[in-house]
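Usage

Read records sequentially. Each one opens with the input sequence:
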Amino acid sequence: MLQIPASASKEILLRGGVIAYPTEAVYGLGCDPDDEAAVQRILEIKQRPWQKGLIMVASDFQQLRPYIDETQLTEAQLTSAFAKWPGPFTFIMPVRTSLSTWVRGQFDTCAVRVSAHPVVRELCDLLNKPLISTSANLAGENPALTAEEILQTFDGKLDALITGALGEQRQPSTIIDIRSGKVLRQG
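and closes with the structure output:
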C-alpha cells in the first residue's frame, strides 16, 4: 500500500481508488462518492451492509449542494448546521434522489459533515467535491487510530494511506438529525 501525502491522491481517487486518511478522531476510508464501484469496494472491505449508508465529508457546504435536497430544509435548519461547521458535527440531511443507494443506504437522507481537519479539507479541495468518510475498521470492530493499524488490517485492500496526524477529537463526531434536531450520537 502506498503511503503518500494528500496532494498526491487526486489521480488515485479519480481512477476509483480507495484510500485511508486521518480525520478529526480516527482514520477513515474514503473514495469518490460518485464512483459506485469504489463505494461498493469500501462496503466490501469494511464488510458493512449497504443499507446503513455512509457519511460524506466536505471542506465546505458548496461541495455538498449537488447531493443535498435543500428544498426540504428551512433557513433556520441550515443556519444551525453552518454555526457548527467546520467541525466535528455530522448532520443527517435529505438528499436528492439521484444520490446512489450505495451512499445513502435504505434512506432518503445522508450523513454529511464539513470538516476542519486539514488533510480532509485538502483531499476534498483536490477533487472539488465531498469524499466518502467511514471509519477505518471492519464492521463491529474499533476504528484504526494509527497508520500501523491501517497497514495490518487493510494491507492489499486499499490503494493508498494518506499521511498526516489525527485531529484532537477523542470521540467520533456528534450526529444530529437536521430536521428534528435530535442528537442521534453524542461525540
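Summary fields computed downstream for this record:
- The two ends are 31 Å apart (CA to CA).
- The CA atoms of residues 36 and 102 lie 7 Å apart.
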